[in-house]
Amino acid sequence: MSHSSRQAPALRVFLPPAHARHDPDSVIGSGAAARPYFERPTRIDALLRAVTAAGLQAEAPRDHGLAPIEALHEEGYLRFLASAYDAWRAEPGFASDPVVRPTAFAVRPLHRKPSSVVGLAGWYLAGHGAPLLQHSWSAAVASAHAAVEAADTVLAGARQAYALTRPPGHHAHADLAGGFCFLNNAAIAAQRLRDGGVARVGLLDIDVHHGNGTQAIFYEREDVHVVSVHGDPAGLYPFYAGYADETGAAAGAGRNLNLPLPPGATDKAWLDAVERGLEALRRPGLPDVLVLSLGFDAQAGDPTANLAVTAEGFRGAGRRIADLGLPTVIIQEGGYLIEKLEANLTAFLQGFLSARA
Ligand SMILES: [Zn+2]
């Protein structure tokens, strides 16, 4: 690769420029009783340093409109996300409240969909981890567009592309936000690939939290095979899904694999699970394209999780995933120990790109 500077970059990177305007911690993270909102704009700054250090350049995605998002998410949910902030501020007594936060949630026995924005907030937002601010919707749409652009880049013949998506996506269902996620970027990319003519998509999720939204979206589908390596949800978000006995249903039976790991799992156990996941994607025959939900929150000390993976683990994962030999759309998910993000992405890219050279 002596003339690499004159060739197309080994990896095109797409960064949604609007992401930083979605910053819940700036409005809800203060006060003695407040819990910090870990999904912050500075995460992207750290990841971007690794991109630059790898000799890559981030590009803004084009505006792809709402069609690729509507291909997957429910219409009423999208209307809510787009309009809730203004409707909330118009509610009596809420004119100065800068955050759409449910006062009640539509939990198990409560299943009647209301019409008011205050009621809908608890219908469409699954927890306090998905507060809507003035610019959350535009940030989520831009993030999804980065995923679409990465999928289109692979559809056009590139071997790999990376969407530096923020807010992340894998906890978002077709009609439910949660866990820092509003639009499911990885699922939108997978659907974009399908609509672009890819017959079979493999989706590997190595974020430490189970990708419950992704699982739900594809649970009864045969065309997108979902594999997730994550911390045991018995003690970790998203708590209510991600168990090993969830294996898909209907046409998707046997096409969903969960590989939960106990607290404290280190590089070896985590990489063994990644390897098992990749092995499952090889059977009964390789998918045509891989979508990778890439999180760095399996890192030891991440404030939202409980595994003990290091940069060497992410390097090994990059190498193993590259060895699958598939065109790959990489979608950024979590990773909240910000001081480790640059090293973790650097190690992942070194492992991944060196195995592709
Ligand atoms: Zn996560």
UniProtKB/TrEMBL annotation:
The keyword Phosphoprotein does not apply. Residues 39-350 form the Histone deacetylase domain. Keywords: Hydrolase, Metal-binding, Zinc. InterPro entries: HDACs (IPR000286), His_deacetylse_dom (IPR023801), His_deacetylse_dom_sf (IPR037138), Ureohydrolase_dom_sf (IPR023696). Its cofactor is Zn(2+). The keyword Metal-binding applies. Belongs to the histone deacetylase family. PANTHER family: HISTONE DEACETYLASE 8, HISTONE DEACETYLASE HDAC1-RELATED. This is Histone deacetylase family protein.
